[in-house]
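seq as requested:
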Amino acid sequence: MLHEIVLKIEEENGFYVDEKCYSIVEEFIEEAKKFPRDKILIGMHYLIHSKFNFSLDTKIELFSECLRKRKFNCKHSSLLYLVIAEKFNLPIKSVFVPNHVFVRWEGSSVFNWETTKGEKRDNKYYIKKYNISKNAIKNSVYLKSLEGKEFISAFYNVVGIQNTKMKEFEKAKENFQKAIELVNNFPEALWNYALASKYLGCFDEAKEKLEFLISLDTHLTNPAKELLKKLKNN
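struct tokens:
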């Protein structure tokens, strides 16, 4: 299941993962069984915020840390929704916008669900809030429904960021590459890959990723242009 893949990624990169992490998710699955299909979104919000008493904390990045400390960000809550979707064959997909993730219900009706708030949101809300360009939507960078395995890219990116903080740039680059292999136009992973490549002196690789990132017209277009200019001038 998706949570097992994420926890394995973290463990393989040297981060602490214990059996409690797996058992907490299993408890979620058992509790989710109590909700009818048409109430599962509200039910999941109740489970995360009330039954299991998780609190929002954007400083928490690793999923294992989220589970141990009962603190979460949008990636963690979206992952829990996707685990339930996978377990019970529900029409829930993940959706990326700049530095944020939510889920989309794609049943007889289609709507976005903000997992941090437990509320419906339309695309216009995200376009305005995150200042998403028309080109980024046209290029399927943002607001595209993603399959469960594609969502794993977000956690390869998270682990890569942790590697970078520890100056493990080779490992970071490998994880960013895995994220890009799952979602080739993932802006944050492209940007982070370019940074890791720069730190390692792989300037041609960095420039290649930056040029592609610029072509997508994302929230990172201007920073990418600035860094590319510096690399070309060196």
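The chain has a mean pLDDT of 95.
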